[in-house]
Amino acid sequence: MKYLPLILMVVCPPLWAKDILWMNNGDRLTGTIEEIGEESVRIALPYSGTVTVKREAIKRWRLEKQDKPKATAKGGITLFKDEQDERNAWLWSGSGDLNVKLKHNDKQTNNVNFKGNTEVANLDWRYTLSGEYTYETSDSITDSHDYKLNPTLDYFFDQHWFLRNSLNAEYDMLADNYLKLDYGSGPGYRFWNDKQRRLELIAQGGVQRAYFRSDSWAGGAWFDSRIISYPFGSLSWDYRQPLLFWQQRLELFSKGSYLKYLAQSSPYITLHQDVTGSIGLRYYFNDHLRLSWSSEMEWQNGALHYPGVDAEISESEWRHLLSLGASF
């Protein structure tokens, strides 16, 4: 009978411990995590005793018995899961928000704005596709009609650092500058890695291409082509944080980017910088349905230098939206 404990450990090790450490080199340690510190994690293994592992060598961990805080929304749908290695699990999540504004005062104004986002990710890869549709009329005259599409692909080197490749596409049905494409690539850093909170900073370099209509373009005197390219550097952020009251049903969020133009395509028109951003609050009625308030800004400045004309160019727009949305 003295060998019974050893036999049980060999035959049924999952009964002894189920905490798991996944290492950056692909190894996996199964045992009981005793302490998680700022620089190291101590885990007791069933056959070799307690070992201490540096945090920088760990990709992620899972605690079998941990008090999980209530999420503001469900984490998504698992598309594929390997029971032997959870790094092969792909998680699909998404959300959408609809804003409709009808005003009848001195002008009859109708505005429709829809935003959608979907994300498929595992521990190493993340693919995100977001889009926006805006349609605005004033006294039965269309003021704005445009689409935005933003696919991104991220590869994670560890739990913090990743490489992002992205495309920002904006198509305007009314403006002379009907299409704008931003191609960017660069490193990103993720401060938090859980389903509730997110804080990421991304630095990218790339090129912006603006396309003008041939039948109404009046910039031939300033540019050599209807397709204009601008190299740029940018810094963007993505932040969300549940608030610690009302059973964590409130969520603070902010997202945006700062773009600096590095070279010019015309000696007459100089573009300096662009800033786009949003900040707001979401209230979750349940795990799926939510009400959102957001304040959004778009700002661009530059300068015009032409014989007899020397002026600063500045365009800005503020929007305040109250939207009903859903997520999964």
Briefly, what is this?
With 328 residues, the chain is mostly beta strands.
How would you characterize the overall build of this protein?
By secondary structure, the chain is mainly beta. It folds into 2 domains: 59 residues, SH3 type barrels (Roll), CATH 2.30.30.100; 251 residues, Beta Barrel (Porin). The chain is built from 2 helices and 18 strands. The protein starts with a helix and ends with a strand.
Notable features of this structure?
2 helices, 2 domains, disordered N terminus, 5-stranded antiparallel sheet, single chain, SH3 type barrels, Porin, mainly beta, 328 residues
Low-confidence stretches: 1-16, 66-74
CATH architecture of the largest domain: Beta Barrel
CATH topology term of the largest domain: Porin
**What's the β-strand tally?**
18
The major pleated sheet works out as:
12 strands, antiparallel, barrel
Give the overall average pLDDT: 80
The secondary structure category is mainly beta
The best one-word shape is globular
Number of domains: 2
For the biggest β-sheet, the strand order reads 7-8-9-10-11-12-13-14-15-16-17-18
- State the name of the first-level CATH class of the largest domain: Mainly Beta
What string gives the helices and strands in order?
A: HHEEEEEEEEEEEEEEEEEE
The rounded distance between the terminal residues' Cα atoms is 53 Å
Give the helix proportion (percent range). Answer: under 10%
User: Beta fraction of the residues?
Assistant: over 45%
Question: Could you tell me the radius of gyration in angstroms?
Answer: 26 Å
Task: Give the helix tally.
Answer: 2
Q: What is the fourth-level CATH superfamily of the largest domain?
A: monomeric porin ompg
